Amino acid sequence: MQGTRLLISDLDGTLLGDDESLQRFADWVHPRRTDVRLAYNTGRFYASVCDLVASTPLPPPDAVIGGVGTDVRLFPDGERVDGWPRCLGPWGRPEIRSILAQYRELEPQPDEFQAEFKLSYYAPDLECGFLVELRRRLAASGHVVEVVYSSNRDLDILPAGVDKGSAAAFLASRFGLQPGQVFVAGDTGNDASMFRHGFRGIVVGNAHAELRSLYSPDVYKSDRAYAEGVLDGMQYWLQRRPGATY
Question: What DSSP designation does 61 have?
């Protein structure tokens, strides 16, 4: 595995958004697949990603992290990777859902976006204070969870210790890779956790302010949108230190 690199990218708003850019990214990735492994880290579920691979220029990945980090599968057989999710506390989904039903600000998303380890809501324009109070209320009821708010609209409640970043770290470890060999790309707040594990980060040019506000020597902010931004970021990192492990 020495010398192998892994790109873990969000889909909607990151790789997806411009088909011409996506085709250029696919053309760049294709001849490098012996050296660059590929995983998608998305709010979508596995079947939806399979449909995209079949109907767009999206390259086939080696793995899919779906449901905002709650599901990790190999591609194309769909086999779940053993050992995930690693919940750091109890996950009382029915009780949590009952508490959240008391907030008129939260509208449950359709059943197709819900899962065993994920509760998802539409919640436009929430204030920071609301999220703090929501976490406090849940914790006081014995539910320490991940509260992920993104795009100023989407609210996901996940088990403690489970998010896109922890799932990415789990997958990288399963592939036998060090953080310096891993690249992550995203565009919204639910991608932020991927940038907290020492990976080489890529923020695409169309990203929301919640991600553009990240500042770290490990984060490259492209001025190019969608897949063109991911490609720009990969070229930046790979050319920056030719002798580095990544």
Answer: -
HSE-up of 183 (CA within 13 Å, CB side)?
A: 25
Sheet (strand 36-41) strand order? 71-74, 63-66, 36-41, 5-9, 182-186, 200-203, 219-221
Does an H or E element contain 37, and which?
A: strand 36-41
The segments of the chain whose pLDDT lies below 70 read 1-3, 241-246
Distance CA 167, CA 97 (A): 23
pTM (two decimals): 0.93
Alpha helices in 180-225 (DSSP H): 209-212
8 Å CB contact between 38 and 214? no
pLDDT computed for residue 87 by the predictor: 86
Coil, strand or helix: which one is 141? coil
Cis peptide before 61 (omega within 30 of 0): no
Residue 245: predicted pLDDT: 41
CATH number among 1.10.3210.10, 3.40.50.1000, 3.40.50.300, 3.90.190.20, domain 5-84+162-240? 3.40.50.1000
Residue 242 has a pLDDT of 44
